Prior knowledge:
This protein is mainly alpha-helical. About 65% of the residues lie in helices and about 0% in strands. The chain contains 19 helices and four strands.
Amino acid sequence: MRQLFGASGANLDPDQLSRLSGVPFDPAMMSTVMQHLQSAFAGAGEGGISWDLAQRQALHIANQDGRSVTAGQQTDLDQAFRLAALWVSEATAIAELAEPARSLTRGQWVEQTLPVWQELAEPVATSIADALTRTLSEQAPEELQGVVQGAGRLMRGIGGSLFAAQLGQVVGRLSTEVVGAGEVGIPVMPPGVAGILPQNFAAFGEGLEVDADEAALYIAARELARARLFRHAKWLRVHVIAQVAEIARGTLVDNAGLEDLASRFDPSEPEELRQALMSGELLQRSESGQAALVRLENILATIEGWVDVVTTDATARLPHADRLAEAARRRRAVGGPAEQALGSLVGLELRPRRQREAAAMWRAVTDAVGIEGRDGLWDYPDLMPESSDIDDPSGLVARLEARARGDEPMRDALDEALEALLSEAGADDADDDAPEQGGPQEPEGPQDPRPV
């Protein structure tokens, strides 16, 4: 801290900060980070988070080796999206997108997705900063309480800036890996927008011995299916972000672990501290936060399972569809973009097995009630399959088949509550209209027109 903000700040070793943060700063980027951190120190009273730093860091990484989209790439992908759109329309009842899909550079992907990353990250950054400040206040001796209280905003500003730099690192690295614009599985793209990053797509098919046009059709179908789903189920984006916020609110600091780490920390070897911060081992979750984490994993598995089924059906004409699907599964198994992003944000490790189980559930539902019956479950959140349905789809299938026959309409808690409320209201009205036994009768003649 003395080196960073004191008179000797100019002598801070960039390599030491890079090892601590895990961010490979070059001299120009180092200067930018230092300016933002020192601004956070000077303006700590504002307590804001420097999201501009996240954007600068992400774009710096994205544009280092970024290439523009050529006219030939644009034409090839436009054709792939047009044909894939026809195939996807045969595999789902959800309507087409209102605007054409896009071919994006890495920098364009960063710019279009960063507002959502910020929305997802802000509650996490705020919660961690509050938890650390609260822990410091609890651990500090009485004579330092006044200093600790005054340092709260300072810590929020500095901690927020460091978190923003880390977020920029994650998003920038993702921009060099994602093939489809929405591949991370969470709705980071604007609603109803699908896209492919041609520069990253070129690496996807390496070693598969599959024609580039065939691979483009497969990726285009996945992107269109996912984008159609998020555009159709407008509640889905809000639901995902709400779970992230709930996880953040349930974040606590492991005081014992923090004290143990501090007791053996060697400033000349910051790797252990960096790993502890990145892995989340110093953080704990409340019961509500852990429940939200489970809900988030289930809803993301449900989304990707549906996308798998629709893509499989839409690309059945492709000679090597199975090989392309296996390549997509391998990306998830080894920790693809979604795992990296969610692991950094909320510590969520997506289990490929859970996504396979969700895909098996959607396949069973499709076989039982058809495409329209399956896709109708996305109309309202109350109709969505639950975690138990992923574990054992038989109960869900039985309910849907009964509903299709007209034997058992699907009712939820909201329907039953509304019916009970209306029944009570009707009974109350009947009681009010009935004259009391032996009581005075209503007088005849004009009544007072004023509303009661």
